């Protein structure tokens, strides 16, 4: 049985970065990945990169050409990710599904067994398949991973779930020309955002042709003449609609089922996510978990920051933890992009802050007009007592870049006046922050 200094299970962002770091420090590393189509992990092969590639091409390309370009891109990136680690003498990339035998030993595809002093679980997450009658047998049912591989644009697309994935793909498919209907259990979109923001997002997507069915519960899916049929209820009334394809976007669950964790001391919560302490150690101190598999925020940059925490815990002064990451923004790549950081107005009020609210329509930004993209709003939540920035929402083109500036300001404890008086280039989208914070 071969011994390694470290075994990393899963080729995700945190794990692959850690593999390179450990190898650089002279450690012998085994990186186990269950699919040779997943080198580089979800982000590169099934998540961020393919979705953003299709999204940015939506206004300029036919669907098939865009899918081909996306496939070329991810094939290139997958190979690059593989080569980067495979070329290192200290790293063995092992193809196969890893399963724990005990706290130190891992079996690959039930055949090869290896052991290590440290083990890092970075197995990510997968689409939840909701318990809807017929869902396992019906045809034309997709997850985000499978639908983006299809070369034919669905003329009529149903999306079950109006969260991040649902909205990004609704906006994208609508812009390629699909007739998109989103079925959402809740009475409105993005429940954790303020109502004015959620309504603005809804309005923008409706203008792109997306239809929403709120408070709708899908009870059954079936097939009829090559169509996928959705049986759903709204306010006790039952309806039936037919589509070319149904996309399931009802959340993602941790990939822990086939890890054999019952053979270890690693504990999971009721949602099957691995329980970790602030340094990402599981209940077995030499086994760590990084990225989506431990629950919490599911973003590539969180998995990367998990790597930084683990590195600091192993080789640094152990000051980085999951509690001192600073404010974490996120962006949803509808068109225009929706970005958010910190507290919403509602959350700030519930937490007892006396708030000042600043709002600016995107149409007031010179650059947005130059670009012909005037839809959206910007909103800032300020603490009246301290002038601190509590939160910010940017619903405008390039907000995925702008929000990082607001993040830096918040992490540096700047006052809102610092942004109001900052010199930005012109004509840029960022200069809108001068006006937004000029209250
Ligand atoms: C459609 C979509 C769009 C997204 N867009 C964004 C975005 O724009 N920005 C953003 O930050 N995040 C986005 N995300 C989320 C992001 O992709 C994830 O948060 C991130 O990839 C999680 O990385 P990870 O390190 O946890 O592991 P992953 O990248 O998920 O890697 C886990 C790897 O482990 C392998 N594996 C699983 N079980 C085993 C096993 N037993 N043995 C061996 N290997 C195993 C898997 O095959 C996989 O390759 C998106 C996700 C989706 C689905
Ligand atoms: N831009 C980004 O960074 C980005 C993009 C896409 C995904 N992601 C990551 O992927 C994760 C998963 O995304 P997601 O959209 O699948 O999950 P989500 O949790 O964001 O949204 C799921 C939605 O489905 C609804 N829902 C659940 N069950 C339902 C049912 N049976 N019928 C109808 N509606 C139902 C929920 O009310 C919710 O609105 C996100 O949390 C995010 O971290 C990130």
Automatic annotation (TrEMBL):
SUPFAM superfamilies xrefs: FAD/NAD(P)-binding domain, FAD/NAD-linked reductases, dimerisation (C-terminal) domain
- Residues binding FAD are 52, 123-125, 292
Annotated cofactor note: Binds 1 FAD per subunit.
Please give the Gene Ontology molecular function terms for this protein.
flavin adenine dinucleotide binding; NAD(P)H dehydrogenase (quinone) activity; oxidoreductase activity, acting on a sulfur group of donors, NAD(P) as acceptor
InterPro entries from the entry?
Answer: FAD/NAD-bd_sf, FAD/NAD-binding_dom, FAD/NAD-linked_Rdtase_dimer_sf, Pyr_nuc-diS_OxRdtase, Pyr_nucl-diS_OxRdtase_dimer, Pyr_OxRdtase_I_AS
Known cofactor(s)? FAD
Q: Which UniProt keywords apply?
A: Disulfide bond, FAD, Flavoprotein, NAD, NADP, Nucleotide-binding, Oxidoreductase, Redox-active center
Disulfide cross-links? 43-48
Which positions are catalytic residues?
426
Per UniProt, where does NAD(+) bind? Answer: 161-168, 184, 251
Q: What Pfam family is a match, any one?
A: Pyr_redox_dim
Which PROSITE patterns does this chain map to?
A: PYRIDINE_REDOX_1
> To which protein family does this belong?
Belongs to the class-I pyridine nucleotide-disulfide oxidoreductase family.
What name does this protein carry?
Answer: Pyridine nucleotide-disulfide oxidoreductase
């Amino acid at each position: 049985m071969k011994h390694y200094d470290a075994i990393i299970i899963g080729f995700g962002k945190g794990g692959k970065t850690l593999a390179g770091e450990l190898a650089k420090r002279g450690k012998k590393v085994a990186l186990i990945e269950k699919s040779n189509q997943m080198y580089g992990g979800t982000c590169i092969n099934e998540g961020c990169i393919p979705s953003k590639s299709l999204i940015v091409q939506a206004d300029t390309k036919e669907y098939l050409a865009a899918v081909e370009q996306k496939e070329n891109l991810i094939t290139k990136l997958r190979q690059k990710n593989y080569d980067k680690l495979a070329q290192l003498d200290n790293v063995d990339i092992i193809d196969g599904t890893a399963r724990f035998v005990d706290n130190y030993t891992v079996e690959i595809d039930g055949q090869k067994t290896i052991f290590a002093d440290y083990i890092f679980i970075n197995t990510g997450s997968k689409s939840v398949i909701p318990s809807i009658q017929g869902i396992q047998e019906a045809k034309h049912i997709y997850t985000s991973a499978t639908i983006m591989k299809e070369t034919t644009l669905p003329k009529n697309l149903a999306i079950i779930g109006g969260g991040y994935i649902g909205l990004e793909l609704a906006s994208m498919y609508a812009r390629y020309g699909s007739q998109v209907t989103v079925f959402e259990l809740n009475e409105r979109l993005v429940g954790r955002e303020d109502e004015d923001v959620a309504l603005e997002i809804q309005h923008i997507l409706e203008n792109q042709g997306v239809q929403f069915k709120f408070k709708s519960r899908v009870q059954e899916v079936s097939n009829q003449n090559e169509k996928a049929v959705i049986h759903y209820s709204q306010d006790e009334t039952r309806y039936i609609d037919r589509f070319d394809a149904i996309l399931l976007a009802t959340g993602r669950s941790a990939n822990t089922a086939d890890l054999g964790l019952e053979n270890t001391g690693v504990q999971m919560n009721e949602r099957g996510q691995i329980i970790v302490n602030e340094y990402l150690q599981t209940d077995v101190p030499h086994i760590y978990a990084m990225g989506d598999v431990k629950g919490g925020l599911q973003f590539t940059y969180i998995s990367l920051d998990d790597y930084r925490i683990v590195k600091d815990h192993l080789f640094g002064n152990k000051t980085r933890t999951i509690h001192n990451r600073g404010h974490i923004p996120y962006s949803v790549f509808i068109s225009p992009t929706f970005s958010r950081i910190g507290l919403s107005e509602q959350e700030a009020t519930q937490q007892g802050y006396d708030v000042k609210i600043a709002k600016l329509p995107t149409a007031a930004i010179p650059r947005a007009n130059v670009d012909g993209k005037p839809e959206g709003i910007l909103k800032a939540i300020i603490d009246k007592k301290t002038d601190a920035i509590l939160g910010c929402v940017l619903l405008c083109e390039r907000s995925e870049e702008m929000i990082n500036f607001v993040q830096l300001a918040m992490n540096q404890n700047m006052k809102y006046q610092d942004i109001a008086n900052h010199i930005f280039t012109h004509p840029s989208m960022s200069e809108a922050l001068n006006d937004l914070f000029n209250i």
